[in-house]
């Protein structure tokens, strides 16, 4: 498992969005741990997948994401 990566996902605003984001990430890495915060529209992800792959998986699911430093 890699370090946690915090992602900004501006279009994520509801429970359906949360489920879609979690599904996109765990679809890429079944062992990933995802903590979604709808209020701040961010997700903290612990995954063995590369950050670029996570961002691409979210984009494919319809959610633009970018790492937060």
UniProtKB/TrEMBL annotation:
Q: Is the Metal-binding keyword given for this protein? A: yes
- Domain HMA per the UniProt entry, residue ranges: 3-66
PROSITE patterns noted in UniProt: HMA_1, HMA_2
Entries under SUPFAM superfamilies matching the protein? HMA, heavy metal-associated domain
UniProt xrefs under InterPro entries: Heavy-metal-associated_CS (IPR017969), HMA_dom (IPR006121), HMA_dom_sf (IPR036163)
Instruction: For this UniProt record, give its keywords in alphabetical order, as a comma-separated list.
Output: Metal-binding
Instruction: Tell me the Gene3D superfamilies matching this sequence.
Output: 3.30.70.100
In Pfam terms, one family for this protein is HMA
Does the keyword section mention Endoplasmic reticulum? no
**Protein's name in the database:** Cation transporter
Q: Which organism is it from?
A: Acidimangrovimonas pyrenivorans
